[in-house]
UniProtKB/TrEMBL annotation:
Ranges for domain HTH luxR-type: 145-208
Top-level lineage group: Bacteria
Stored Pfam families: GerE, Response_reg
The name this protein goes by in its record: Response regulator transcription factor
Alphabetical UniProt keywords: DNA-binding, Phosphoprotein, Transcription, Transcription regulation
SUPFAM superfamilies (UniProt xref): C-terminal effector domain of the bipartite response regulators (SSF46894), CheY-like (SSF52172)
Positions of post-translational 4-aspartylphosphate modification: D52
PANTHER family registered for this protein in UniProt: TRANSCRIPTIONAL REGULATORY PROTEIN NARL-RELATED (PTHR43214:SF24), TWO-COMPONENT RESPONSE REGULATOR (PTHR43214)
Annotated Response regulatory domain residues: 2-132
Length: 221
């Protein structure tokens, strides 16, 4: 696929370029800041743009740049990279969009297979969340955290964690060694306990379920 890259760290940028080329992707251009990426993409279209979250033109310039790009190129995928798995970054990313978007740790995309899998899922319209962050977001609430979240079973929490990673029902079933039918049942239970009504689109309900956990963690801190 055609990929554009914005990363202010020269060493990591060059390494990522080599990795993308080794995976057979066409790199339409690379820049060190968000403004240059916007200018690049005005003349060199890409399927996915890869952005460092913490880069110029401001501390979290990747997020600001992505907001501009989503308005200018709504069909283009966005992959955010960072050294840090932060829930407040994920909240900002989900506000930018829930389709064709991803958030991965830099240290986890250091192989052709992982990077290609991530980019392919984003190009296909999925949302891809770093597994360690997804797991943290759906840990069983402790202390005074009450309500629907605490009512989920351990297996339902496992399913929701994998939903938060952007996995399909088939992918969840493979991870948990259960049937897709069992996954469908767990997801139906999750939607019911979180009061996500059936008149809402399936994809949207999955995102809302993840957002429920994000907000619970934020409010409980």
């Amino acid at each position: 696929m055609r990929v554009a890259l914005a990363e202010d760290g020269a060493l990591f940028r060059e390494g990522l370029l080599m990795l993308l080329q080794a995976a057979g992707h066409e790199v339409v251009g690379s820049t060190a800041d968000g403004d240059s990426l916007v200018e690049l993409l005005s003349t060199h279209p890409a399927d996915v743009a890869i952005l460092d979250i913490r880069m110029p033109p401001e501390p979290d310039g990747g997020l600001v740049t992505a907001e501009r790009l989503r308005g200018l190129h709504p069909d283009m995928g966005l992959l955010f990279l960072s050294h840090y798995a932060e829930s407040h970054y994920l909240m900002r990313i989900l506000q930018i969009g829930t389709d064709s978007i991803g958030y991965r740790l830099k240290e986890k995309v250091g192989s052709v297979d992982v990077l290609t899998d991530t980019l392919s899922r984003i190009e296909a319209g999925e949302i891809v969340i770093e597994p360690v962050l997804a797991k943290r977001l759906v840990e069983r609430p402790r202390g005074d955290k009450k309500g629907a979240i605490a009512s989920l079973s351990e297996r339902e929490l496992d399913v929701l964690r994998l939903m938060a990673e952007g996995r399909s029902n088939t992918g969840i079933a493979a991870q948990l060694f259960v049937t897709p039918k069992a996954v469908e049942k767990h997801i139906a239970n999750i939607f019911g306990k979180l009061n996500l009504h059936a008149d809402t689109a399936e994809h949207h309900r999955r995102v809302l379920a993840v957002l429920t956990y994000l907000r619970s963690q934020r409010d409980g801190d």
